[in-house]
Amino acid sequence: MRTRDQKIGPVAAGAIVAGNMIGSGVFLLPASLGAIGSITVVGWVAVLAGCLLLGWVCSTLAMLRPGGLGLIAHVHDALGRYLGFQSAFVYWISTWFGNVAIALAVTGYLGTFVAAMKVPPVLAGATIAIIWLMTLVNLSGARLIARFEGVALVLGLAPVMLVGGLGWAWFDPDIFAASWNVTGGSDLSAVSSSLGLIIWAFLGLESAAVVAAVVRRPERDVPLATAGGIGLAGVTYIVACTALSGVMPASELAASTAPFADVAVRIWGPVAGSILAVCAMVKAAGTLAGWMLVGAETAEAAAELGLFPRFLSKINRNGAPSRNLIVTAVLMSVVCVATLSGTLGEQFSMVVNMAVILNVLVYVYACLSLLRLSGTIASTGARRRAQAVSLTGLAFGILIIALSEMWMLAVAAVILALTVPLYLLGRAGRSGPAS
Length: 435
Hints:
By secondary structure, this protein is an all-alpha fold. Helix content is about 75%, strand content about 0%. The protein has 18 helices and no strands. The protein has helices at about 10-20, 25-35, 40-65, 70-80, 80-110, 120-140, 140-165, 175-180, 185-200, 205-210, 220-245, 250-255, 260-270, 270-305, 320-340, 345-375, 380-400, 405-430. The protein starts with 9 loop residues before the first helix and ends in a 7-residue tail after the last helix.
């Protein structure tokens, strides 16, 4: 059991939410979106609205089950043991891929100063070292992670807001207009193609609900942390990325490996670019630490529910899920080696794409869970509101999945298929029938 002193309040939880989102996405995505054009500002607004809905769903679930074990437990309670296991398994795997992507961002920016980081084996070794360093930080407990994320958030936000804020002084409406849609297709198809990329930057919106077990008053603090974290991240993204689209043409953004640093160099010189690269490394490391906590807490909750092997469940004297952290770090290291590619960009895209589709699948389950549990809400108005938001969030999640590439859907289908024999194997090893 965790004591009150080992738990965190709304500000710390909000720092984890915002910190988990404002990571590698805000620093790297403008380059990917440059291939689409400045029209992606429409995608940013649409995804922000959709993610606020999904965040509302996750926090409402936490309020309905304030003593629960987080998002996976809510799916388990609402949709049954099998889908609870499936969502836990899928979400856990998604954190392996997502965390590797964030770790790659750390070593990628390190490559700005160390040329050897551009050699794939060296890059992989450094990435694995970062993973294990953040594992050691996590073993010190959620309070240290919250403090680390808070410091990293400030360091990460400072240069982004500096470029995104002061960069407006160099904003050229003609550059923005000329880069509006460079895909050659319709505006609708351009916006649609941006949604899957943009949602990567918002993964983590459920962080406060997932780590509800380490929040003092989840019924109050989780909704505050979720809305505040998503709002802060969303405004930061829109302001900063729109500024970049008016400073650098889309073709130059698409060719950049560090768009914020490149804009800083253009405006203030190479020293500014180097400083921003250091801040990006610290921020990505803080994001990785927070996401490792989220992944470990997911497995911890699943173990306590009997969905994962109970030998994984162990809380150390600092209140950290020590065994799950170590097992997750091992599996992340395996993913890092297995996805090793010719360039960092190729490996980053591969792990990001898988993290997105698996995360969104769990968001869909969360919407279905709230729809199922909405019948327990006493107030008619609140019940109808919960149902309406659930259905809208469900439609948004299904749209994102439908826009995914076929290879991603195929891999996700294989992962889902694996949950059947794994669940049956686990049920056969339990004493007593499954509920």
